[in-house]
Amino acid sequence: MEFCVAAGPEDTRERITGMNDIAQAIRQDQHGSGKYLAFWLGKEEFAVPVGRIREIIPWQEITPVPQAAAYVLGVINLRGKVVPVMDLRLRLSMPGQERGVRACIVVMQPDSKKSQSPIGVVVDGVSEVLQIQPSELEDTASLSNGWMQLGYVNQIAKSKGKVKLLLEIDSVLAGPAEEIAKATELELAGAAIG
Amino acid sequence: MQREAQLLRLLDAVLGSVFSTRVCEDAAAEEHRRQGLVQQLQQAADCARELALAGTTESAMQLVALLEPGEAGEELQPRLEQQAEQLQALAEQELEARMMASAPPASATPGMPWGDFVLEAREHLANIESELLRLENKPDDSESVHALFRSFHTIKGLAAIAGTETAREVAHQTENLLDEVRSGTRAVSSGLIDLALASADFLLEVVSAAEQLDRGEEAEIPEDAGVLLDKLYAAIACPATVESDAPSEEGASVAAVQRSGAPSVRRMTGSAVKVDTAKLDQLVDLVGELVIAQSLVQLDPALVRLGDSKTAKNLNQLGRITTELQKTAMSLRVVPVGQSFQRMARVFRDLVLESGKQATLETAGEDAELDRTIVEQLADPLMHMVRNAVDHGLEKPADREKAGKPATGCIRLSATHQSGHVVIEVSDDGRGLDQDRILRKAIERGLVKEQVQLTEAETLDLIFEPGFSTSEQVTAISGRGVGMDVVKREIEKLRGRVEVRSQPGKGTTFLMRVPLTLAIIDALVVRHANNRFILPLFTVREILKPGGQTINTVEGRNEVALLRDRVVPVIRMEALLGDSVLSIKDGQPRPTEEMVLVVVEAGSRRVALAVDEVVGKQEVVIKSLGYWMGRVRGVAGGAILGDGSVGIILDLDGLMGKEGYGLAA
């Protein structure tokens, strides 16, 4: 595991010294290559651009928020900041499973502009940081010719003989606020047409 | 474009230093200023050199030559004074040349970085307002004129860079007017001040629009200055003075608007830094964490068992430092209330001119400090009170004289600290409130019954009732359908209180009592099932363990409690927040009789919340759950509790407000 699972100042330092790499990775993202963080959800391995990763923290007690959306597990205290945590499994409508010892919270940036505060995403374990070349990517749409009913996976990477699922990160990380905003927009558009 | 803007700014700073020379009498300050000047000059020269390298234009070359710092010890002052205008002209020329070169003209395109423009222009506009008011009282204050000239000048530059033509022109024409004042060919008149204030108002509109754009909101930069520009052109065309067109009687001359007491308008001092509020918040967050970590260490059983006196001493020292640090961190968010008063001075001036009355404004206690958000949200209620005082409180000069009072009335704004709160007073020496009339009106409006017996204070409090206004005529100033009830509501939103005192013939005083900060509340922490919830203590009326007879069921489903002859509905937490917080005992919902009732005032009713346990009272720092979560019904935010975990702050008003409870599930 190249990305050490630890919170605290070392992590911050790592982010600062690695800033150039990460910034470059974000730029390259637009062309579909760059660095990704891979993690497990059940038996599936997913990958998210490192530009969106703030840090990885060990599992901790989560305070539930009554009346929040179902995939919102609650909030945690991240160095004095209240940070919402979501269950990626529920978000992707995947079957539930006992939390294993390697489960951790990946703190991600919900928007690419970094204007929003970060959110925590519960995963079953992080595996590696890897480089994915554009040539290693396959579009799920063209691949399946439409028969795969996929919610949030838009690309699949073949890396060292294994398959990593690339999440459509913006929609996965869009929170309840964003969804409500979008729903209202659609409603308004519908009303305008009707 | 950034280099050019920076150069302009640096030159402004240089010239500012040059012209402020006459104020520095003390030798050390003078030396300090001189060094600063040399440094600024150096930077400006570097900047110009870079420009010259980037693309050689005539003006850039000349600038480099002019800015070259001379021999050490050379007297910079006279040289710069001579060259001041030449420098400025060159810098502008340079800027224009660049803008032409980088066509298309920088129009107000979306995505344009407005941030710098907004930040700087705002600061200058605030300066402009206070300097104009100062100038009005002291028309021969050349320093004010210089400061004003420079501020308008800078805004002109900023507007040009931002590409808003009208704003640039307005700033430019105002600057021209002020230039004539500066050179002594035009006298300061109230008309001139009015005009300059109007320019500042227009520019503020532009800045506000730009700010919205900067935040990514929809907005349009105003490009139509209305008659303002015509007035400016007319003023410049007409030499010597600017006629005042305010509808003021001779008696109510501008001279009546004086500010007495110590000069409250403080000039910007060099010892402050601008900090992003997000960074401040982060600092406060981290210090909060430090306090928790510190107490965890200090109370660690392993360390306590050690019983080492040196360790204990060191830990205590750590504790003291942490507490001190927390206090300091919290104090960073506060600002002096004086800036609010400063804004009132402007409102006051306009009001007095408009109303045909004569009055002076006195301010005191500007140094009292309050949380920034509170100061911001106080602005509207404060303005309303000042309006009221001028409009309803003060009599016309003739009436005042008849009553044996000086024709010029006095309105006083003051702020004082009182045990964790700040009390802001707005008082006038006018006619005072007429109790009989208030009562009559209240009866007329059906606010109270006839033959009601009210104390003096209760009668006066009637003016805070919705729909009450004692003014017999509606005026443009205060008769806008908003009454004192709005003021009361605004103050209560800040968890404050408002009171009124009045003596017939002597005057009226409004007291607004607000907390020092909104970020911290006294809270009651309760436990229900596995959740800890935080209730704001000010909503809690009483806490009790229900006895055998206290709780009665209604139709088998609902419960009410009989508390001192009053029927209060009992609401279990799960009824408000859903089954995820259901309290269970032996596989069954726990009976309400075994719970604790917390009687709260919420949504203008009194209800008894049934919870498993009251954990305790503590101060908590309110934290937002963030935009991402969206609005969660019944949740006001989160707070970090003493053990480092997060507690949910309940929004009882939201839970039990208009929509009623029970819709939760």
Detailed description of the structure:
The complex is a heterodimer of chains A (194) and B (665). By secondary structure, chain A is α+β, with helices and mostly antiparallel strands. Chain A has a single domain, classed as OB fold (Dihydrolipoamide Acetyltransferase, E2P). Chain A has six helices and eleven strands. In chain A, the strands form two sheets. A six-stranded mixed beta sheet of chain A has the order 8-1-2-11-10-9. Chain A has a five-stranded mixed beta sheet with strand order 3-6-7-5-4. The N terminus of chain A is likely disordered. A six-stranded mixed beta sheet of chain B has the order 1-3-5-6-8-7. In chain B, helix 8 runs antiparallel to helix 9. Chain B is built from 20 helices and 21 strands. Chain B is of the alpha+beta class. The C terminus of chain B is likely disordered. Chain B folds into four domains: 242 residues, HPT domain (Four Helix Bundle (Hemerythrin (Met), subunit A), Up-down Bundle); 53 residues; 181 residues, Heat Shock Protein 90 (2-Layer Sandwich); 137 residues, CheA-289, Domain 4 (OB fold (Dihydrolipoamide Acetyltransferase, E2P)). Chains A and B meet through strand 4, strand 5 and helix 6 of A and helix 10, strand 20 and strand 21 of B.
